[in-house]
Design goal:
By secondary structure, the protein is mainly α. The chain is built from one helix and no strands.
């Protein structure tokens, strides 16, 4: 994974983090709806 932290690959990290954030938000909304 070391290559992902090079400046020229920053867009890859940003994309992965964006996907994780969207999935996390969805999971939080699903959990809140169950309460």
């Amino acid at each position: 994974y070391k290559h992902l932290f090079k400046p020229e690959n920053r867009h890859v990290i940003d994309q992965i983090q964006g996907d994780i954030d969207k999935n996390w938000d969805m999971l939080q909304r699903r959990e809140e709806a169950r309460i």
